[in-house]
Amino acid sequence: MIRDSRLWNLYLALDVDHIDVMAYCPIEDQSLFVATIPLDGEIRGYVESVEEAVYDNPLLLNDFNKVSVIIRSVERVLLPTEIANSEYVTDIVGEMTGMMSGRLIVNELPLLGTSLCFRVDDALYNFLTRTFGVQVKLVHRLTSFITYTHGTQRGAGSMCSHVNLRRSSIDIVIFNGDKLLLANTYKTTSVTDGMYYVMATRKMFDIVATNAVILSGDKDVRDELTALLTQYLPTVIPAVFPTAMFRAGGQTALSTPTDLILMPLCE
Could you tell me which of 33, 12, 15 has the C-alpha nearest to residue 23? Predict the structure, then answer.
């Protein structure tokens, strides 16, 4: 499927029960390829199921220009970058997440003076670096969403709610200029849960009603949440889809998970 993988970039998103895959060639329009690989974690351990999924799909073992891996569903801590780069970061992350073991990963957030810190299971980290090389980039699912929305929020203005939607959870990010006020993921069982978290976080920071709610992610959830929010807020709008990624994959790109589609734009 790929003539010269050395011109392509590979992106993997590791979830609890599947791996989302995205690959594309930055110099070739309409080259985007996406797939979902289920994980057989009930019979095998999580790391073993990831290994099997990768080795059973030879496409993933090509020699790519770069490989980035998004780690989903893990605890994370947002810290001032100065502290994240200090000798105390290991103890702080352990105390705040309860995760005392595993490889500590620090994702710096440009211009915000903040870093997102999380841990990756040692066996999983060793597998990823052994398979894709020590240069493989590991990021938390919130990292690209924070970076991208901060880069684009100047047009919308400060104190807007940036919301990324999925079937069972939402991400909410709020900035005041170059200050990150909130970046969190909330589990949801219904669209009304999503409405509650959007409204509650806006109240937390006394955000005026005219400041926009900008929605991205699952289209069906977005349509339902828009209908609810517009009963209380005047400006509920869909996020502008990045032109570069639409050129890369057209309709395929539109249905690709947000954290994956934003990754190439934040590297």
Answer: 33
